[in-house]
Amino acid sequence: MIKREKAEIIAVGTELLLGQITNTNASWLSERLAELGLNVFYHSVVGDNLHRVCETFAHAHERSDLVIVTGGLGPTDDDLTREAFSEMSSLKMFHHEPTMVKLEDFFRKQKSIMTENNKKQALVFETAEVLDNSEGTAPGLIVEYEGTTWVFLPGVPREMKSLAEEHVFSYLERTGGRDELIRSLVLRFSGVGESKLETELKDLITEQSNPTVAPLVAKDGVTIRITAKAETAAEADELNEKMKSKVLSRVGQYFYGMNDETLASTILSMLKEKKLTIASAESLTGGMFADELISIPGASSVCLGGVVSYARSAKERLLGVPKELIDEHGTVSEACATAMAKNVKELLGGDIGISFTGVAGPGSAEGKPAGTVFIGLATSDEVHAHQFSLHGGRHSIRSQSVNKGLELIYKLLKS
């Protein structure tokens, strides 16, 4: 068995340094490695430069027992991962025949000619375990070299995840000796800020070592991550459940879901359970709210649709907001928001109507500053609107408005 105490993740690609692509691979790998009881000590990103990649690999080899490299396995001249590791380790490379056959078959099916540089994808190191890539052409590689396990994976997230799930994690479990594993669960909260949540749980956050309790800001609210270490999954889960009970005994009124659940998916489940439908009328959010719901499978049974009524004329013609109402109150107003919510509910025949109107910025409108937002709600019992003063750039204000709308719907359904 191989003892692996320090893991490191290296992403190769200049596009990551330029900000053209976000390094989501590292966060996903770190989370999955933690579940295996492997501690990630370093994340590195290095551009497509042979000297710098070699230098980064050398540092990683000195300090880590497990190094996972993503990217740089393609066919072009700037794909330098293999060359850098071969130079650092002096391990020779050869063309892997099964991969060559797969490449030739791929191009034959595409009815295109395989250029000479594509053969580079079939290069593997002597002593390497070659991992078949079911989602792409370049294989993954695992190499045990001078006491360090090196794993090479494509940078494309779909391919990386497939290889990790199908080959890498089982290899690490099979060959690694571990004293304990790490298990986490995430509690999700809505309608409460991070500072208030942290205040309510301050002693649990600062005094607990196993499990640990950490607040994090999420897209649609605030989360609490609880992480336990134990020799078995059952023991770790029991520690997490006990801490979960302590947390919810204090802030359970804001709790809406766990782990991968989102506020939107929770709302859809509640709408289905209550056999209710929803329709939206959006001005400043421009369809973002409807998209948040419709992006979830099964939304068609409860989400009737939406009207994007950005211009004043669209509010009048599509939604039937009276000209006189807009003349008197303006489009950025409680009166306009309530009319939009009421009318879209009736127009699409929904049980709930929700509307968004306001000023996203950067400048003011109708004498109201950027961040002024009105969200209307209409049900069979009442019609009303909520006013918010939000802060940030244009996109942030629009996103916050959608989240506020989700919170209002959640409170309505929960009551």
UniProtKB/TrEMBL annotation:
- Source superkingdom: Bacteria
Q: Which HAMAP family match?
A: CinA_B
Question: What's the source species for this entry?
Answer: Aciduricibacillus chroicocephali
Gene from which the chain derives: cinA
Which PANTHER family does this one have? NICOTINAMIDE-NUCLEOTIDE AMIDOHYDROLASE PNCC, NMN AMIDOHYDROLASE-LIKE PROTEIN YFAY
Fetch the InterPro entries from UniProt.
CinA, CinA-like_C, CinA_C, CinA_KH, Competence-induced_CinA, MoaB/Mog-like_dom_sf, MoaB/Mog_dom
Q: Could you say which protein family the record assigns here?
A: Belongs to the CinA family.
MoaB/Mog domain span: 8-175
Name of the molecule in the record: Putative competence-damage inducible protein
- Pfam families the UniProt entry points to: CinA (PF02464), CinA_KH (PF18146), MoCF_biosynth (PF00994)
